[in-house]
Every structure is written in C-alpha cells, then in structure tokens.
Amino acid sequence: MRCLPPRRAALRFPLALLAFAAGVLLLLLQAPAASAVQFPPPQPPVPAPVVPAPADPAPFQPTPEAPAPASPDPLNPTAPVDPAPPAPPTDPSGPDGDGSVVINGPNGTPSSAVVTLLGITLLTVAPSLLLMMSSFTKIFVVLVMTRNALSLPSIPPNQVIAGLALFLSFFIMGPVLGDINSGAVQPYLDGDFTFQEAYTEAAGPIQQWMLQFTREEDIALMTRAAGMDNPATPEDVPLTTLIPAFMISELRAAFIIGFVIFIPFLVIDLVVSSALMSMGMMMLPPVIISLPFKILLFILVDGWGLIVTALIRSYA
C-alpha cells in the first residue's frame, strides 16, 4: 500500500468537509424552486342563461259541426235519413244471357290468362298423351327388348332410349301435329274457333291416325268391355274406346318385332353354350363368351339402322 506524505493527508479531510457543505447548500437552494406550484388564475363566474317566461295559451275555440243533411220529410226536419240499399249481385251470364262466361279478349281472341292456363294444362297431361296417343310406346318397347337381346341390361341407359323414342315419335307424327296446328290451334288463337270447335277439329286428325294402326279385334274387345254397341263406321268410335284399343295394338306389334330381334341372338347363345359344354367348361357363364359375338353381329348388319327403319316404315 502506497503511503501519502503527512502534509497532504492533513489537507484531505478539510477539503472533503468543504465539498460536503457545498452540496448541502445547493440542495437547500433548489428545494423552494421545485416545491413551488403554478396555479391558473381564477376565472370570472359565468352568468346563468335567461329563460323566457312561457306565453299564455291560446283560448279554446270549438270546431263548428257540419250541417246535417236535409231531411226528405219537410214536416219532421230532424228525422234521420235511411242509407241507400246496396245493389243486388249481377247474374254471371254472357252477353246473350245464356249463363256462359266470356273468356275471350275484346277482338274474339283468347286472353293471355286463358292461353297460359291451357299451356300449363297441356304440359301436365303431355306425358300421358305421349304414351297413349303416339308411337312412343311401341318404339320404346322395341328398343328395350333389343338391349335385352344383346345381354346389355343397362347399355344404352333408359334416358338415351327414351330420348331416341321421343324424337322418332315426333318424326313419325310430324304431319299429324302439323294438321292439328293449322286446323285447330291457330284458328283458336286467331279467334275464329271457340274452345269446343278447336277441340273437335284437333281430335279429327289424331283419331284418323290411330284408327290406321288399331286392329278391329282390339276395338271390338274394348267396345264389348264398355257394354256398347259396335259402331257403324270407324269415325263413330269414341276416344275413350279407341285409345286403349290403340295401346293394345301397339304393344302387340312391339312384342312381335322384339321376338324377331331375339332369334339371331338366341342362336348365338345356344352355339356358345354347346361349345362350352363340349369342352367341359360348365362353370364359365356363356354370356361372357357370347356377348362379343352378339355385338359384332349387331354392328356388321347395322342393327340400329335396321330397327329404326323398320319402326318408321311400320307407320307408313
């Protein structure tokens, strides 16, 4: 440890005491300045708002009453007047007074509401009319039997077969639909025919078309089932008898065509089954082997073309 000279050691203590006294003096001088608080100057008082005194209410004035209606009795002017009785309901009859309601427009044409109602009704019964009064049933049955003869229960699907049968029906019945449109629908829309006259004119072409492809035996069958006498002429056959007789004839013709289609494919199944039996392959299903040969035969003879041509010519 380094030792200081005796003179310097004697001066060190008074200097330290002097520095301590100076620091205490500085702290005392700064304390009053820090403790001083600046307060804002006092604000003058705000006067209260002056509220005006309420005005005096206006004096009540009664509403003058309306004068009473004049009495029809001059001797008793205060007698009450009876109200007028309501008008009686009018009879919903046509202009001729026959009890019919007029649904046509001002120029004789049917109103838009009637046309819309007839259109919705036609769309509702269109599937039934398509099945009962057209060639759709026969074409659809023949196409389904052809698919089954090929051992293809789901190819082509039902939607494809139904679409093909639908457009073939439109193709076959195009002339009939044209006659109905020109002879009944357009005159009715122009106001030349009433609804009953348009229905009679439209039933004529479709009835003549169905009579061409309905057997007399089927008409006689439905006539006897209805307990009616045999009609004198084909035109006297009512639609309630003609439509089921036409459907029976169509199903009969469809089954005959389907039987003819089944024969060549049945021969292929017999040949394949005999070949498998002779080779001792009894566990192998014959359909797996005969299916390619059926499809090959159907393509070689242009099966779809032959069937569609035969169906169209059956209505010629």
From TrEMBL:
Secretion signal, residue range per the UniProt entry: 1-36
Compositional bias per record (Low complexity), positions renumbered to this chain: 93-102
Main localization of the protein described in the UniProt heading: membrane
Membrane topology label: Multi-pass membrane protein
InterPro entries per UniProt: FliP, T3SS_IM_P
Pfam families according to UniProt: FliP (PF00813)
Biological processes annotated in GO: bacterial-type flagellum organization; protein secretion
UniProt keyword terms in alphabetical order: Bacterial flagellum, Bacterial flagellum biogenesis, Bacterial flagellum protein export, Cell membrane, Cell projection, Cilium, Flagellum, Membrane, Protein transport, Signal, Transmembrane, Transmembrane helix, Transport
Role noted for this protein: Plays a role in the flagellum-specific transport system.
Family, similarity comment: Belongs to the FliP/MopC/SpaP family.
Stated name of the protein: Flagellar biosynthetic protein FliP
Protein source organism: uncultured Arthrobacter sp
Gene: fliP
